[in-house]
Each structure stands twice: as structure tokens, then as C-alpha cells.
Design a protein that fits this description.
single chain, alpha+beta, Glutamine Phosphoribosylpyrophosphate, subunit 1, domain 1, 10 helices, 13 strands
Amino acid sequence: MSDLKRRTFFKLGLFGVVLSLVKPTKAAELLTNIKGSRFAATPKRTVISTWSHGMEANETAWEVLSSNGRALDAVEKGVMTTESDMSNRSVGAGGRPDRTGHVTLDACIMDEKSRCGSVAYLEGIKHPISVARGIMENTQHVMLVGDGARDFALDYEYEKVKSPIKEVKKDWREWKKENKDLFKKPTINHENHDTIGMLVLDDYGNLSGACTTSGWAYKMPGRVGDSPIIGAGLFVDNEVGAACATGLGEAIIRIAGSHTVVELMRQGKSPQEACKLAVERIISKHDDLTNLQCAFIALDKFGNYGGYSVYKGFDFALKTDERNEVVKADYNLSWE
């Protein structure tokens, strides 16, 4: 990195520290009063999340921000909305099970101080994202998995839930009878897009992110994708920006996808350019792209955002003071 870029990002990081210590109105005033600076712009309160089911989640997150809430609280409450939706077959206890009939949940969360928490292969808990936050705030660890994650959740009295639900159990039984090819590649579509990832920039100029999923339908027992892995499914650097991923987790893990997006932004790429370059890196690492859908969304310190996918069909939910809509992301390939 050049000396100019180092100085630029040092200033940006120092600004983030100052802004985090003052009230939202004062933070806006500080930024607005810096005459002649390239940073003379108020951070734009922004919520962005993967897929159209993020619209409802964004509304919940926005309510938190509208009460002068923190980005961390907004991302947790936001994705909890999706975890509570028992009609969603790729997030929460309403999700599809592994091939043995167990619904196992993965989630992670990360705040503006680079604190993070994660759970993987958690069963029978309604809000895995809250357990992930609990691990972040109450232990010296980042990730707990399986029985250890469940024991922690029960010790801290997180709400339990029975899974799979009746409709999902019926589908699973039918799947078993049809004797499908257990190792076929997944089709990531409106029925199986496996994640809600959310990024938030608050009025304090701080970023946080969250990611939660029930994972690949009928996966092998023990399989964990990118969603609970910091640096793969989610990464936040409050000096620069944040990113999260959705799609085939194995491919995203191979390039440390969300960390890659944030580091590209650190090098001066826009959120949109960074997402595109990360997708291109995934494409370059695979000889066979059949049904290999992956996508990223990104958000920088001033509310600039982007999204990009391997194949056509990915969209993301966006909410700002001016916009509240589903955005069709740019892409590299078409399915035809």
C-alpha cells in the first residue's frame, strides 16, 4: 500500500474511533464541519441483507437504529426476524434437516470492535444468532459447536424450539423414499438459498454484521458451511467496511470470501468492485461451475454498498433514508 493510502486509512480509522465515542447528532456534526476533507460527508444509516426475505428483517433492524440503537443490536434483532419465520426453509428451526433428519443451525455475529461470536451445528435453539452473541460477550471463545454450543445455550436459558417442524419432517421422509443422489451439487434458488446475512451502518458511524442459516438441505451429518465462519460468511473491519456471503459455502470458504471483499475495499475498491472481484476469484478456482452459485454483499463506512453473484438471480434487500427495496444484483454468468 502506498504512503498516501496508509495515511488515508489511518485518518479514516481514527475518525471511526472518535465517532464511536460521541452521540449520533454530534458525529454527524463533526463530519459535516470538516471543510475541504474527502471525508466531509455524514455516514448514511444503511441496512443491507441477502435475498428478498431480508426486507422484513431490515425493517426490524431499522426500528433499532431509529431509536438511536447500535449496529450490533440492529443486526441481531434483524436476523432474528428471519429465524422466527417458520415458513423459511433455509434459516432457523423451520429449515430443512440433514440427511438423518436433524435441523442443525449455524450463525455468527461481529461488531465494530472486531469482537465476534459463532455457533455451528446447534440444534433445538430458536435464535442461534443470540447464542453467537452470548459467546462473544460471555466467554473467551469465538466459536462453540454441537453439544457444546447447545449446553452453553441451555446454561444461559436461550429459548428452545422443537425441530424439525411437521411440514419439514414430511418433506424429509419423502426425500428419503425417493432415494435421491446424496452427493449431487445443490441448486441455490428461491427454495434453498441457505442464509440471511445482514450488514448495518449506524448513526455513530459504526458497522456490524450477522449471518444465520440452517444450511444445505439434506447435508451430510456434521457438515458446516461458510455462514458461521468469521472471514468466510462474514467479516467486519470498522476502519473500512463489512461483507457477508451466501450460496455454496464450500466455495466461499476456499477464498475466505468476506474477508477478501473487505481487504479489496481496504485497497481502495468500491463495495461493488470488491464483490465482483471476489466472485471472479471463486470462478477462477473452479473448473466446474455447474450450479455453483455464490454471492456477496458489502457496505463501507459511509453507506456505499454493493452486491454481485456468480449466476443471475441473486438479489438483496436495501434500506436507507431514501430507499427501501429489493435490488437485483449484477452477475457474471447466466443459467442458460
